[in-house]
Amino acid sequence: MQTHPFPAEQNTSVPLAETASAHRRPRDFTRRDFLSASAVLATSGVIAASVGNAAPNEPATSSQAPAPRKGTRPSTDRAHFWPNGARLCVSLSMQFEAGGQPISGAGGPITEPIEPGYPDLGTNGFFEYGIDEGMPRMLDLFDKHEIKVTSFMIGEAILKHPELAAEIVGRGHEPAAHGQRWEPQYTFPPEKERATIQNCLDSIVKVTGQRPSGYDCYWMRGSVRTLGLLQELGFTYHNNDMNRDEPFVQDINGKPFVSVPYTFHMNDIVAYGFTGFSPADYEQQLHDEFDQLYEEGASRRRMMLVSLHDRLSGHASRVRVLDRFLSYAKSRPDVWFARKDEIARHALATPDITPQVVRKVSEISGLPANTNQKEG
Asked: Taking CA 104 as the corner, what is the angle to CA 102 and CA 108, rounded to the nearest 5 degrees?
């Protein structure tokens, strides 16, 4: 298994709060831009007084629609994009992986890899931090801001920490599947791949009492059979595409199957680990991503996804980053904080504006490749 070293974090001589404030786009610009547009919409009753954490409802209709974009169905006005006329959907995920990782070879903070066959005690302690400190801290943060997230759970991990998994669901968060172990499944023969999905599903039902509707492969390393297996096993969505800033639908086994696309650069492992961001760097990226998508949300369906890990974003200074970002995002009018199952349901309920993608697995981009796996 490929390891992912974590470079040391960059230092900054400017206090974090001052740095984030200095780099942040001035609020006057985007707020003025929003108010100018919303004043017109509000007079026709399009904008709800407050969206906040509103549950999905029946979308509004519109008599006018902008020209369709390539590869999508025609869009309507903003009232139809998200529930209650929200301008932007923000969805956070919190991965539950500790206990499902290999004893040696999992990515950790130590850049020098351990020799194969020896337990990586330091890295396993890194994962344990997420369970003991990071996840409880993050759950309290989500309660503070009254938002619900999606927790992608590894089966082996939640079997070792059932009380914490049950607490996540008890606080109103979504349990979703992340495989039985933290390992890629694209090399698995069909029967083994089906088993790892089924075993994870069964583990989540056993521990939480809820059946997951979404699936996330290890680092998007599914096979050409994965979506078909998920459809057969009763899942309704996955998040292993990176090709849009909105949900879309594919026909799998004659039924609609939703993709809630993954945003690679907004993953905290990518930001802190691969890129070497400091907390201030990541905070700036969160604000910039939000501001741009919020601006576009006046005329297009836009969605911001952030993938978080308890062993990374659960550290004290990094939770402060999330705290400030959530305060900022919640200060903007008409932002819908949603679980991914809510996004998938809304996408299925609005087929007139949800892109319908027709493709085979390998027909995404690039040159044809040899494969020993049958598509379908």
From this structure: 90
Q: For the ranges 58-67, 109-118, 215-224, 313-322, which has the lowest average pLDDT?
A: 58-67
**10 Å Cβ neighbour count for 2?**
8
Counts for the chain of helices (H) and strands (E), in that order: 12, 10
The pLDDT of residue 229 is above 70: yes
| Residues 134-190 pLDDT 10s | 899 999 999 999 999 999 999 989 999 999 999 999 999 999 999 888 777 777 788
pLDDT of residue 371: 45
- The answer to the question of residue 370 being in a domain is no
Domain range spanning residue 231?
71-111+119-361
**Tokens found for residue 376:** 């379908």
Closest to 94 in 3D by CA, of 352, 368, 353, 340: 340
Closest of 154, 148, 152, 153 to residue 170, by C-alpha: 148
Q: Which of 27-31, 208-212, 220-224, 340-344 has the lowest mean pLDDT?
A: 27-31
- Domain-located, residue 303: yes
Asked if 328 and 304 count as a contact pair (C-beta separation under 8 A), the reply is no
Judged against a pLDDT cut of 70, whether residue 70 lies above it is answered with: no
Residue whose C-alpha is closest to residue 200's, from 97, 103, 131: 97
Separation between Cα atoms, residue 148 and residue 171, nearest integer Å: 8
pLDDT digits (tens, 9 = 90+) for 87-126: 999 999 998 887 656 665 566 666 667 777 787 766 666 7
Residue 17 resides in a domain: no
The 3-class secondary structure across 264-275, one letter per residue, is HHHCHHHHHHHC
User: What Rg, from alpha-carbon coordinates, does the chain have?
Assistant: 21
Q: With respect to residue 135, please indicate whether it lies within any of the assigned structural domains.
A: yes
**pLDDT at site 375:** 46
Those residues with Cβ within 8 angstroms of residue 275's Cβ, 6 or more apart along the chain or in another chain = 281
* Residues 329-349 as b or e (16 or more Cβ within 10 Å = b): beebbbbbbbbbbbbbbbbbe
Separation CA 215–CA 98 (nearest Å) = 17
We report the CATH number of the domain holding residue 102 as 3.20.20.370
Number of domains in the chain: 1
Predicted local confidence at residue 249, as pLDDT? 94
Distances (CA, A) of 220 to 96, 135, 186, 240: 16, 23, 9, 5
